[in-house]
Amino acid sequence: MIIQSExxxxxxxxxxxxxxxxxxxxxxxxxxxxxIIEARLxxxxxxxxxxxxxxxxxxxxxxxxxxxxxxxxxxxxxxxYIWLIENMLKLNSSMQGRVLQRMxxxxxxxxxxxxxxxxxxxxxxxxxxxxxxxxxxxxxxxFLNLNLSNxxxxxxxxxxxxxxxxxxxxxxxxxxxxxxxxxLSDIDELLEK
Length: 193
What we know:
The protein is mainly alpha-helical. The chain has helices spanning 4-11, 17-26, 31-44, 48-51, 53-59, 77-89, 96-103, 118-121, 126-130, 150-163, 187-192; strands spanning 63-67, 70-74, 114-115, 135-137, 143-145, 172-176. The chain folds into two domains: 4-59, no CATH class; 63-192, Replication modulator SeqA, C-terminal DNA-binding domain (Up-down Bundle), CATH 1.20.1380.
């Protein structure tokens, strides 16, 4: 779990590229921290991976997913997240807008998980809108926020699966090599909420 002081340190406007890359080394076993640090690097230092590709590759863990009969492995959790969201939304294309409105409510801190426009998604933050690695345009025209921790991604997937009546484990699954299986052991409890 990430504490607010760590998030504040990462997002401080004076943070340098080398400080953030050093932080990647320190947190290379924490996928949630890696996602947040990499999103900040993507936002502020386009092309940072080119100068530091050995760490980027060694810190990435495969994300294994399945949807119905199809199984896939992605080297980035956000690619797996997009694939699962798009497959879930295909189940009922006539209600996609309504489904997204029900599942992607604003976060606790005012963040938005999906929206009909990029301005709405990022509260007109021009830097975030310009950073294509932070969002994905869904086939129905909505924009999906990719600047999420892996825990947030799983939470959104569980919400959408509940709306389209899919069962975790049976109809779909999500696991990341570096995450302990016990992290997902309470899935049934989460689904009941």
